[in-house]
Specification:
The structure is a single chain. With about 350 residues, the chain is of the alpha+beta class. It has 2 domains: about 85-205, YerB-like fold (3-Layer(bba) Sandwich); about 220-350, 3-Layer(bba) Sandwich (YerB-like fold), CATH 3.50.90.10. The protein is about 15% helix and about 30% strand. The protein has 5 helices and 21 strands. It has helices at about 10-20, 25-40, 140-145, 160-170, 200-205, and strands at about 85-90, 105-110, 115-125, 150-155, 170-175, 185, 195, 220, 225-230, 230-235, 240-245, 250-255, 260, 270, 275-285, 295-300, 300-310, 310-320, 330, 340, 345-350. The strands form 4 sheets. Strands 1, 2, 3, 4, 5, 9, 15, 16, 17, 18, 19 and 21 form a 12-stranded mixed beta sheet that branches. Strands 10, 11, 12, 13 and 14 form a 5-stranded antiparallel beta sheet that branches. It has a two-stranded antiparallel ribbon with strand order 6-7. About 40% of the residues are buried. This is DUF3048 domain-containing protein. Pfam families: DUF3048 (PF11258), DUF3048_C (PF17479). It comes from Streptomyces hazeniae.
């Protein structure tokens, strides 16, 4: 499937909200007809349920029954998921606007050398024609990607000292230098911001990439509490991300370095849920060509986080016991923090 249509976000999200609030009358009619045929007062699935009661969908990314449509553990939306593809993206001003970012299930924001930023976009529901610009991998990407099992990983290169670590990791490598058929160059941009990956070709190139699995997210109605918050900003030494709530579009609109963030199609970037996760960023064993130390983002451990949804900010705790585990976000008292359904941005901020 190609990129999303320009004006599909608001109508689609309102239809989803309507489906969560209502139970179709046809469901109750079928239930009564089944009861008349079987002598029971409820559905035949499961037989032990005496009376059908309309219930809200639980705050999880897992379908309730084997016959239910697949529900993404990344977005909480119904669909037909494919293998997981992670793409490392540049995010300097010359790398913008991005292509294919609106189709991602998840977008991770990372600090890199010199206080700049890069993005990790994860795809498992939609496959745009191309995604980019693609840039090089970092050491802490391996820790981040372990939670997905063995996802396909598209990147443009890596330091020689890190190549063995990548080969030994569970990720299914799809580097540009070894997978030329999965990449294309844009004549309208200069190197290095002109490299793009073709997601369908990258998934064909990868060896049996993982299917989506539980990475700790839960989805459902907004909980009580939180603080009204119409905008939030995360700053790195040389980069800045702003998130402004749009009640009309029911999502947080993204700004980068003070300018509205848009895709190459002109559409504004934004997501219904934004997570600001405070982590340790220590020096890694690598430096860039100018001698600047590459930060290592410790996504394993625990700490505080802020979840933005529905125009409110919720102070939560995060915990990820190991690299193979997902990250649980919990409210005060221990209940899991439900995200709104749709794309999720996770912004790593220094604690």
């Amino acid at each position: 499937m190609g990129t999303l249509a320009r004006d599909d976000i608001r109508p689609r999200r309102r239809r989803q909200r309507a489906r969560r609030r209502t139970v179709p009358a046809g469901v109750l009619v079928l239930a009564l007809a089944a009861a008349a045929c079987t002598g029971q007062n409820g559905d035949e699935d499961p037989p032990s349920t005496p009376t059908p009661q309309p219930t809200a969908q639980p705050p999880t990314g897992t379908p309730e029954t084997p016959d239910a449509p697949a529900v993404s553990p990344f977005t909480g939306e119904e669909g037909k998921p494919h293998g997981v593809l992670a793409v490392k993206l540049g995010n300097t001003p010359s790398a913008r606007p991005h292509t294919g970012l609106r189709a991602a299930d998840l977008v991770y924001v990372e600090k890199v050398e010199g206080g700049l930023s890069r993005l990790m976009a994860v795809y498992a529901s939609r496959t745009p024609d191309r995604v980019g610009p693609v840039r090089s991998a970092r050491e802490s990407d391996l820790e981040l990607l372990r939670q997905f099992g063995h996802p396909a990983f598209a990147y443009s290169g890596v330091r020689s000292a890190l190549k063995d670590d990548l080969r030994k990791s569970p990720v299914r490598r799809v580097p540009a230098g070894e997978s030329p058929n999965a990449y294309t160059r844009s004549s309208g941009r200069a190197v290095p911001d002109n490299l793009y990956v073709r997601p369908k070709a990258a998934l064909r190139t990868a060896e049996d990439p993982s299917r989506p699995r539980d990475i700790g997210f839960r989805f459902g109605p907004a909980p009580d509490g939180g603080t009204k918050d119409g905008s939030h900003t995360v700053r790195y030494p040389a980069a800045r991300f702003g998130f402004t709530w749009s009640a009309e579009q029911e999502r947080w609109l993204v700004s980068m370095d003070g300018a509205p963030a848009r895709g190459t199609d002109g559409d504004r970037l934004g997501a219904p849920t934004v997570v600001v996760q405070y982590v340790t960023m220590r020096p890694s064993r690598f430096r860039d060509v100018a001698g600047a130390v590459t930060p290592y983002i410790e996504s394993v451990g625990s700490g505080r986080a802020k979840v933005l949804r529905d125009g409110r900010a919720y102070d939560v705790r995060w915990k990820r016991p190991s690299a193979a585990d997902g990250t649980a976000f919990t409210l005060p008292g221990g209940a899991r923090m439900p995200f709104d359904r749709g794309q999720v941005w996770i912004v790593y901020a220094e604690r």
